[in-house]
Amino acid sequence: MSDPAQSGFDAIRLASADNVATVLRPVACGDTLRLRGAKDARLVASQDIPLCHKIALTALAAGDRVVKYGQTIGEATAAIRVGDHVHVHNMRSLRAARHGG
Amino acid sequence: MGGEFLGYHRADGRIGVRNHLLVLSVGGLTAPTARRIGAALQGAVTICLPYSAGLLGEDERVRRDAVVGFAAHPNVGAALMVGDNPAFMRDAAQAVAATGKPYAALTLDDCGHDALTLTDRGLREGARLAIEVSRARRAPAPVSALSIGLECGRSDPSSGLVANPLLGLVTDRLVAAGGTAMIGETLEWLGAEHLLEKRARTPEAATKIRDAVIRREKLAIAYGVDLTGSNPSPTNVASGLSSIEEKSLGNIAKSGASPIEGLVAYGERPGRPGLWTMDASAYAPKSVTGFVIAGAQIVLFTTGVGNSYVSALAPTLKLSANPETCAALGQQLDFDASAAFRGETGMEESGAALFSRMIEIASGLSTCGEVLKEGDETVSRFVAAL
Fold this sequence. Notes:
The structure holds two protein chains of two kinds.
Chain A: E1 11-12, E2 20-23, E3 32-36, E4 41-44, E5 54-56, E6 65-68, E7 71-76, E8 85-86, E9 91-92
Parallel strand pairs in A: 1-3
Antiparallel strand pairs in A: 1-2, 2-5, 3-4, 5-8, 6-7, 7-9
Chain B: E1 4-9, E2 15-16, E3 20-25, H1 31-40, E4 44-48, H2 57-71, E5 76-83, H3 86-97, E6 103-107, H4 115-133, E7 139-142, E8 147-153, H5 157-176, E9 180-183, H6 193-199, H7 203-222, H8 234-238, H9 244-251, E10 260-264, E11 274-278, H10 284-293, E12 298-303, E13 316-320, H11 323-329, E14 335-336, H12 338-342, H13 347-362, H14 368-371
Parallel strand pairs in B: 3-4, 3-5, 5-6, 8-9, 8-12, 9-11, 10-11, 12-13, 13-14
Antiparallel strand pairs in B: 1-2, 1-7
Helix pairs in contact in B: 1-4, 2-3, 5-9, 5-13, 6-7
């Protein structure tokens, strides 16, 4: 099993298919993040992001699947830019939801 | 390494990791009496079931399984049961007697419906049992005798990232050694059930797991519950979990990679060792109690932002990987996994350390929850009652 965090990394991508990463420290807008799980990856946060919250690795349109652990964890409900905070304000569950799915 | 622990060998062959005198109120009417007796006796653990009359179907089954599961639990050296229903008590007492465990069973009916007489007789019987309990000594036992419950509460993304995968490593090692592990919280398989199904030992087990998840999902839909804000809870959401799928994928990491033997009902004891799913509430107190009724001697409980709930009968090893939580609540955690979160120690190394801590606790090391007397048991209710 790979170690999820290592000294020197600011965020982790858990599977190659993921389009979000988890930040390993509180992040400020404009911070350049070293991303574990993607070779030599650098990423600039476009918003403040609290510890353990998600950051977008690719741009997403409303309706696009959000992928973490290599699995679908929901869909985007708004346009999301690379580096944006991804959470309940711009994504939602696809299960047991009255909006269908 | 970690092949043995020091436990209490019971007459029925099961091994306890604690040697409690249990004072058990079988119904709500005798709860104050049970609390009086429990408070008066050295080392007593008191559990009170809040209800008894009018239960139907699954609730009647669970009530009986809970009473016998607690009283005959391997962590219990002797049990004093008090209640208000002689027929039920006779049946429960027979089941406890069959395990060879020292016990006493008293009802209000035996005491002229006088709670003070029941207190007096219960205290005398309890004192006798307490001395009996004190005869037991620990002796080496194989880790294959251990059954553990896997729990998470007030989770955050660090749970799915580090703390739950550490439980997965412990689970795989225990199961490989011939032990038993149980993962519950059915709703928190939603969105990850396909991964559990793939690991099921048989197609029937896979179908049972899928059906159990869909049943919970339909329940949420039928009641018009939007899971976001319910499960994940507001606390989960504030800490970064955005959907039930995300929470579930982190949750099932507790079960490691071992094959899944099957699905048991709430509180049902697995018929053989290995990794089992339990169809149960996602509310931690009820979930933990389900594991204890089913015979878990130890609970491994991860938390993201902090959760103080522990079992009364099964020492509950609390851990977190969130560095902020470990700094703030370190004294109330039995294992600090933040070094693994920060990458200062590897996952395999941390998993081995966690396994060793579990064995230490099995052999007598106190947990934070035990020394603070946090323990409780909370039995699920399922259907309407008369």
